[in-house]
Write a structure and sequence with these properties.
About 20% of the residues lie in helices and about 30% in strands. The protein has about 160 residues and is of the alpha+beta class.
Length: about 160
Amino acid sequence: MNHFYKILLSLLLSSFLFMNNAFSDWTNIKFYKSNGIIIGTAEGVDSWFLNAPSFKFSFKNLESGIYRLALHDGNSCNNYGLSAEINNPKLKPWKPSQLLILEVKENGIFDTTLAMKPDNFTEKTRGLISIGSLRGYPLLLFKDNEKKITGCGMVPLLNANK
């Protein structure tokens, strides 16, 4: 009988791990300056328990200072549209015009992981921004409070390479 419980526990644990893996979305975003020079990449993954994305950044060749990452509703880095909360007011708690704040040190490198989150997690805000909802939209990088774009990365659509 003890052997039966070990097998049952193994099956339950395996199915739990499979379900968590099935609900997590991930992507790899390449960021470029407007002149086509690559700034770096960001690996994004959804947190399965918060329904909020986290990104592991690997940026280089940036001036030191504070940057903000913004979500826009356009369809490319050239046609980036408006800040996402303008046409979708439900996103306001997520602050799409400054989803993340990045501080680049003197060496011009930003290499860390940051998580996106709304002001307050509620049933209404949970899952509004995820890797899946970001797909096909540009993430823009601005320095300080400047309006000029420092860099842009498109969150790739699923099956975009096919």
